[in-house]
Structure formats: structure tokens, C-alpha cells
Amino acid sequence: MKQHEPDFLALEYVTITKDPRTGLVVAIGGTEQAAGILQHSGGFLSGARTYHRLPHGLPFEQQRLKATTAAHALLAAGHSVHLDPALNMLTTPDGDRDAALRYLGHLAERVAASENSSQVAEVLTEVAAPVNGLLPLTREVVVRAGFAARALEGTPTGGALDPIDRLGDIAHSMSQAAQVILHARDHAARAPQKAPVPPPSTPQPPASRRR
Fold first, then answer.
1. What is the pLDDT of residues 13-36, one digit of tens each?
2. For the purposes of burial, counting CB atoms within 10 Å of the CB of 84, is it exposed (0-12), middle (13-18) or buried (19 or more)?
3. Could you tell me how far CA 161 lies from the centroid of its own chain?
4. d(CA 116, CA 189)
5. Cα–Cα distance for residue pair 169/148, rounded to 1 Å
6. What's the whole-model pTM score?
7. Start-end of H helices in 1-153
8. Neighbours of 47 (CB within 10 A)
9. β-strand 25-28 against 51-53: which pairing, if any?
10. What DSSP string describes 8-25?
11. pLDDT for position 93
12. Predicted pLDDT at 173
């Protein structure tokens, strides 16, 4: 029996963002109930049938406050909301760093809890995937840092490589390390999986004889 894709009502999803063309903070989508929440909790004005906006001329911090308040009121009422991170007053300057540290800790926990080599291979993919892997992204940071530092300091006077020039060697080593990790990933993914060991059976008492 052929399965059909489910239908989703896109207008029930509310996106709160800042329009780059007009500079207005707008809320796009949503039901009539969502419209009421936007107006009463965030001070949004009805711009048209499909969007609401904050008043002109609000300071940026007021825009963030009203957008954040409206978003959390919508979430509390059960609506699906995407709030532009630039408008979220609850984000902190260290939020991205904390999220990255949590992600690395989560990967370590996944490895520790792995029950087969395929699960280990999945984590190694997260580390060394060519485009979005942690190691290639870190290598990109090192390469850019080397170029930026050299542009700011200029060409060294001595003949030997200085620490900034050695960043290129480090970046090359990171690329080689990523390849080694990917080979290990492939090996782990192809490894035969051990069958789970069944728990020991509990002895059953002998059935009583009928009299």
C-alpha cells in the first residue's frame, strides 16, 4: 500500500525575524489565535493577512524584548515558532561556545555508550566529515588565522619558519588526521556486528500436578 506524505499547514508556523529590506521586525504565518498573542504579548501590529509587524522607530533592544516576549508566549500556547537568534534576548555572548562544548561532551558520551562499531563510526563521521566535520572546520579556522596573522604582521625577516608560518604545516597535518579518522570510520562501519547476548533465563518452578 502506497503511503502518502502528510499535509502540514505552513501558516500555523510563526517566524519572527527582521526584514533586511525594510528593517521591520515581522511575524510571518500563524493562526488567528497566534495573531492575538502577537498583538497582546508583543505589541505587534497587523500588517496584512499573513504577517504582523512591530511599530516603526523602536530601538533595537525594544525590538528584541517584544520579539522574545511574543515568541515565548506563542510557545507557551502550543504554537511552533522560529525566533531569529539576533532578536532573542535570552541568548548570551558565550552561548555558541557553550553549545559547542556540550556537543563535544555529547559525542564523548555517545562513544562511551556505543553498543556496536556502527555507532562508533557515526561519531567518527561527526568528527572528520569532509565538509561539516569538527576537524575540517577547525582546520579552516587555523588556516584563516594564519592568513590573518601574516597580513597583520607582515613577512618575517629571518629565514627560518616562524610560528605563524608553521600554522600551515599544522593545517596540513589536520587534513591528514581527518583522512586517517575517515579510514578508521570506514573500517568500523564494515566490521561485523556482534549479536546481542540474551539475558540469562530465569528458571521456572515445576508446574504443580493436578489432583
1. 899 999 888 888 999 988 888 889
2. middle
3. 38
4. 9
5. 16
6. 0.51
7. 32-42, 60-76, 95-112, 117-128, 134-153
8. 14
9. antiparallel
10. --GGGEEEEEE-TTT--E
11. 62
12. 95
